[in-house]
């Protein structure tokens, strides 16, 4: 008894001593939700990705197994799609960053004296969300369709050969991806730049840094939290996107990304293990890349 | 210009500066010369245009009219990063994403000066913070941040160092210490310091020359002692220390003095200490220059006497006792009596006469509010 009392005295009261029934009761719905709608499907997905065709069953019937060869198979079979997914995602993310940064800087810093203009411009950034992105993507397809005046005039001035088109090319897919995800880049950048203290920039120029140097040494490093969350919010969904690259929208079989192969395997050829293996792979690679990226940008000496 | 590593201060000259912001004029017409190597203080209440003046010199604002010269070179059109000027900001503005050492080395790196880290370390040594070189600014106390900001500016050996109320956020004790330290550093490095402050004690304590600014104009400029001894306007008389002001018509003038009549009392001021010698003028004296008497003192030509008045309030401040005396038809007069160990024999409600030397009077150029000529 005495010993217990003593030890409880020594203990640092860093966390609440009581984990009462109320706490458990309050946590329960959340935990149940996570268990039912995240953990269970995840485990099911991993299980399916390791399953084999039922030897006794018919078409598209699988039994649980530990068939890791499924992963080797999808990697060798869909290697170009995997590379394309991350390649497109990288290019589109960089493009979105280049386009969004000046925009966010203008709204968050330059437009500070005019709050009304700030609000108007932010609304314009979000405005596309009021229309379904499927419709907007289809509209782009229309605009760049083979019969459109844009394409025919490009062909006439010799920018495109007479048998060259825009829809179905990597350019069009990357264009669509960039376009669709720009708001996800702009908003976190804006929230970061909006809090930027101008006095740091003044101190930079007072200490002999030219405007370009001030941007590189002060503005950009200080907006890094926004850059990181913006790039993550665009890169992750773009890597798994299957709308823009699909033949029904802006792409063609030559531009198919991982999302398209997962869709095809799951819905068309009913190869559930391959589809699941691809999904797990996509998730794993993203997790790895993101961890590496966040760690690097967090500890990197920003000078 | 900014490339060379200046070791000595330079003159600063402002010629006919006017600065307008949308809706108001921050600086009306400012002419100012700060000689090289001087500690110059711009003193004024908030909103008087002193910080704007500093920002104009730093290049963070451009004047609507006028010229800025640093060491005879016209820098009016020059960008801030091209001026041989460094600022210690009121908020310090230390880069939060850099260590203390990198903050101090920043300016040196931009100008590609040899051995930036070595020089930065020396500068940190000077402000006694070398042990904190690897910390981030947010891990430092206000006083430490202030010293880093000072080191970051001084390490560049600017021709001109601008200080924007750098001690404003510190507590009184630390402030006193930093004032002494700052003055010592200025003497040691011999740079020109332009110090902006609203604290009159700080300005008088540290500066070689003080310019009192009010509503975008310089009211008066001079050595602290001269400004205190002989303020020329009501604003300076009241902003720099305390003053008793008496207003009256000039009743007689002699070879070397002017006398005014204030409700039947004759108050004299030496001619060379009065801005105006005729009409209605204001004459002032400092509370610590006056003494009071329980009996009416005999009239002497070198002493002004008013009274009798009634003591309204006695305040004990430690160093001195401050008496507020109501003199009929003259208003309230403040008198300081140094605390010499004896308890004051005078009590509330007692009748006293106040006297002070004619030579301690000063005549002002304008009249206090409410006394404008009819």
Folded structure, characterized:
The complex is a heterodimer of chains A (303) and B (374). With 303 residues, chain A is an all-alpha fold. Chain A folds into two domains: 2-49; 72-302, MetI-like fold (Orthogonal Bundle). Helix content of chain A is 70%, strand content 1%. The radius of gyration of chain A is 26 Å and the shape is globular. Chain A starts with a helix and ends with a helix. Residues 1-11 and 299-303 of chain A have low confidence and may be disordered. The termini of chain B are far apart. Chain B has two domains: 2-229, P-loop containing nucleotide triphosphate hydrolases (Rossmann fold, 3-Layer(aba) Sandwich), CATH 3.40.50; 241-363, Beta Barrel (OB fold (Dihydrolipoamide Acetyltransferase, E2P)), CATH 2.40.50. In chain B, helix 2 runs parallel beside helix 4 and helix 3 (116-126) packs across helix 4. The model of chain B is unreliable at 1-6 (pLDDT under 50). Chain B has a six-stranded mixed beta sheet, with helices on both faces. A five-stranded antiparallel beta sheet of chain B has the order 13-12-11-14-20, with no helix packed on it. Chain B is α+β, with helices and mostly antiparallel strands and 374 residues long.
